[in-house]
Design a protein that fits this description.
Elements: E1 5-10, H1 18-31, E2 36-41, H2 43-50, H3 57-71, E3 78-82, H4 88-97, H5 102-106, H6 109-117, H7 126-129, H8 131-140, E4 146-149, H9 154-171, E5 179-182, H10 210-217, H11 239-247, H12 250-262, H13 267-293, H14 296-324
Parallel strand pairs: 1-2, 2-3, 4-5
Helix pairs in contact: 3-13, 4-8, 4-14, 8-9, 10-13, 11-13, 12-13
Length: 332
């Protein structure tokens, strides 16, 4: 029996950080064992908010792919490709735009949220409004059975399911309804306590070496109650302890929690232990990454080959779509 198929992707916004690793990549690597995996670098999606300056996209594509390979994504087991190298995504997006009501797109939670957060950019474009529709095309053109996402993206998959039902109602059963494959989300705070993000300049990157990781973690904010070494704290209020929950074994977590509550350890002691475990987690990535970082041509070859494989699947789907919509003129 063929394995069920999944599709997921990332925007090429630069090197990946520990939030990307723990929130998505770790899960993708595991899913390779049981699913037929399509993983896309969605460069067109970058243009929905950064259309005014696309100069960094090309370099960021290879940066993201290098981190994927270093994390353990295997081009022998997964199809790694670039969205724009499969132009059928754009064709399906166009055809879906003919049948999807505008209010469906306006009610997507991230539509208004990002408009409020990215106030310095003009987001009054169709590309930004239609972002979830292009995302739907990305998913269903491969007839994905499931989409691995965190809870914050579940609404996008539900919209995809609604669009599939509407399309199939008009034109027949072309697409399956993809299931939401929820990823357990671990809270990965940045060095300032907020969610780890490139835009906040608070990220620890997967490629950061040991010295860089220590330099970023040592000044990290902790529980504000621990003003002095002898002051007890509350680990649940400390972003460093949140990182312990993501990277440290139970024995270390218990040690950190008890030491914090009793002032038995200082914050620098706690951070030193954390850094040790973070570097243990990154050791395999750091061992693999130089091989790919030193050979960008090899990374591009992997992406080109993956894009060819993805396009063959997408082309077959689009033949079905055109036939269903009565715009297949191959035998005219």
């Amino acid at each position: 029996m063929p394995r069920p198929r999944i599709l997921s992707g990332m925007r090429p916004t630069g090197a990946l950080h520990l939030g990307n690793l723990m929130g998505a990549l770790d899960n993708w690597v595991r899913l390779q064992e049981t699913y037929e995996c399509f993983f896309s670098i969605v460069d067109w999606h970058s243009l929905t908010t950064d259309y005014a300056d696309p100069s960094g996209i090309r370099d960021n594509v290879v940066e993201v792919a290098t981190d994927w390979l270093a994390a353990g994504l295997d081009p022998e087991r997964s199809t790694l490709f670039i969205q724009s190298q499969v132009p059928e995504h754009a064709e399906l997006h166009l055809l879906l735009s003919m049948v999807v009501p505008v209010p469906w797109l306006e009610r997507v939670p991230t539509y208004k949220e990002q408009q409020q957060q990215l106030t310095g950019k003009d987001l009054s474009t169709y590309g930004f409004l239609g972002y979830p529709l292009l995302q739907t095309a990305d998913i269903i053109i491969y007839k994905a059975d499931a989409v691995p996402v965190g809870e914050d993206q579940a609404a996008h998959v539900e919209l995809t399911r609604e669009i599939v039902r509407r399309f199939n109602n008009f034109y027949g059963p072309v697409f399956p309804e993809p299931k939401t494959l929820l990823t357990e989300a671990k809270r990965i705070p940045g060095t300032d306590g907020r969610k780890m993000s490139k835009s906040y300049d608070n990220a620890v990157y997967m490629k950061d070496d040991a010295d860089t990781v220590r330099q970023k973690i040592n000044p990290m904010i902790t529980d504000p109650a621990r003003m002095r070494r002898k002051d007890p704290g509350t680990p649940e209020k400390c972003p460093v302890f949140d990182l312990h929950k993501a990277f440290s074994p139970k024995e270390t977590r218990d040690w950190a929690a008890e030491g914090c509550r009793t002032a038995g350890i200082g914050c620098l002691d706690c951070k030193a232990k954390l850094t040790d475990h973070m570097l243990e987690r990154l050791a395999d990535i750091h061992a693999r990454r130089p091989e790919f970082a030193s050979r960008p041509d090899t990374v591009w070859d992997i992406l080109r080959e993956g894009s060819k494989k993805a396009r063959a699947v997408a082309q077959a789907t689009m033949n079905e779509v055109r036939e269903a919509m009565k715009i297949d003129y191959r035998n005219a």
